[in-house]
Design brief:
156 residues, alpha+beta, 7-stranded antiparallel sheet, 3 helices, globular, SRPBCC domain-containing protein, START-like_dom_sf, ASHA1/2-like_C
Length: 156
């Protein structure tokens, strides 16, 4: 991934104090996924995953303020614990509906910590990219909180 991003690209990096296998499972296990997906104030009550290359996923996040928001896509590449590529499409009546983006996530484990490098390409425009930056960043804060609770349970 290039250090210089186009207006239709988003890059967010987070480091978690957890092994890559656990961080990867936040994306591949529907029970984990539903516990953190969506910005703060959203929950994710519906997740369907056919987690294999060519398999589809579909999920819904909702909040009192924004209602239900559906999205889905197809898994393009899966390298367990190191790389995940999938399409991402909103289909709930918003400005980015039907715009297929490609998400690539790299998981780099060093010393028991995992760097999650999230890259999304094909975003409609810079305004939508900036909006999605806030949404994904908030979701990744929830991912971190959920993951850390799980790590605490695992260490006890």
């Amino acid at each position: 991934m290039s250090a210089q991003l186009a207006d239709n690209e988003l890059l967010i990096t987070r480091t978690f104090d957890a092994p890559a296998s656990l961080v990867f499972s936040m994306w591949s296990d529907p029970e984990h996924f539903k516990n953190w997906m969506g910005p703060e104030t959203f929950d994710c009550p519906v997740v369907e995953m056919d987690f294999r290359v060519g398999g589809a996923y579909r999920a819904m996040i909702r909040s009192d303020e924004h209602g239900e928001n559906w999205f889905g896509g197809v898994y393009k590449e899966i390298e367990r614990y190191s790389r995940l590529v999938f399409t991402f499409i909103w289909d709930s009546g918003g400005p980015s509906d039907g715009v297929e983006t490609t998400v690539t996530i790299l998981f780099r484990e060093t010393g028991g910590k995992t760097e999650q490098i999230f890259h999304q390409a094909g975003i409609l425009n810079a305004d939508r990219r900036d909006s999605q930056f806030g949404g994904w960043s908030s979701a990744f804060e929830k991912e971190h909180a959920y993951l850390m609770q799980f790590v605490k349970v695992e260490k006890e």
